[in-house]
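Entry 12.
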Amino acid sequence: MDDLNFNVDDIINDVNAKIKSAEKNEADEESVEAEPIADTENSSEACEQADNTDEKPQETPEATDDKPEPILAFHEDNSEEDKGEEDEDKEPEKPEKQEKKSKSSKKKKKKRKKSKVNNSVFGGIILVIVILTVSLVLAVGGISIGMEYYGIGKTDEDIRFNIPAGSTNSEIADILVNEGVIKNKKLFMLALKFEKPAAIYPGDITLQPSSGYSEIIEKLSQMRESYKTVSITFTEGENLLDIAKKLEDNEVCTADDFLFEFNKNQGFDFENDVDDNGDMFYRMEGYFYPDTYEFYVNDSAGNVTKKLREQFEKKYESVKAKIKNSGMSLNEVMTLASIVQLEAASEDEMPKVASVFLNRLDDPDTYPMLQSDTTTNYIKNVIKTEADNTASIEHYTECYDTYKCKGLPAGPICNPGMAAINAVLEPKKTDYYYFCNNLKTGETFYAKTLDEHEENLVKAGLAKKK
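Predicted 3D structure (tokens):
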């Protein structure tokens, strides 16, 4: 709507210029028409004077009531005495000639009068057009400005952004325009003059374009300290269901709203690289970067998701080139990293654990299945509790159970940290195909063959000696 900033003064000035031009043309036309009349009359008089030098003076005709109208003399500046002397030297013109000149003069006057009428009509038409144009401009512009001011027809979507400390009103208006909250900076600055808020406080804020300028100014002037915040730490290995429950428990947003919003595309570049094979239980599982975040209490799930996406994209950019050179897709890297995250006893063991799974993936004929217990736990704790029906449970079980499906599961089973991701991208070079952990000591045992693995299970306290 900010395109409808008509300049009525420019329109009026333009039309006035056209009217003045028309009037000048009219004056020029009158001047051009007048000069031939004067020349004709002077020439006629000169001819008559020449003719009369050879003829005897004629008697002056008697005065009558039917006197012809006097002919205009554009160059007459003589005094009364000069006129008297000329009258003595010249004989009065014949009535017939005076009558012809009078008729000619009348025709010229009629033409000039007609020209004036035409110019007057033209000027009147222009004036009507100006009035109609200005009225239309004011009407359309007024409606558009009113709709913009009151937020009519604008989105009620939450837009979250930051007002830097020390920002001027003009800078804040620019931020609002750039973020898509408002469209007309001048109108907002005018609204500030009428609203006269005590102050506009810096900090993070969420606004809706549909609120209208008055409500937007009111929200901007509220103290940021009035918003309660909460700090939440998310650890590596938590799944989206765990994260959603934490957010709800801390009154940030509801778990259902978060799960719905987080699994939608939000317009971030990395989302284009995420597989959408239809078999993933939560499409964006694995694409949450574990960290400590500060949220506003009673915030929207959209704002929460945006904050989390921004952090993940930063981390993704740091390993994007490595993923491309790995020969694996983003989904494959994140899926394997999620398994490594839950299987490894420590970060130090992650590169070796990753090598075990990669070795098995490289030899599918001998080791068609990864056989990771962490995938069966995901089925038990997430899929079976959140799936809508039995058919869905059976379908997703086939997609995620690595004791049944070949190769990697359909998608990540948790949200891994950077150590697990780097372990997949830069694994140790080993010839191990098995491993197990001592749950009490945290020690990890690796094996090349099944027999060695069974011996390690006993060492780790996971099986009895045969």
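Annotation: Residues 30 and 431 are 109 Å apart (CA to CA). The first strand starts at residue 159 and ends at 163.
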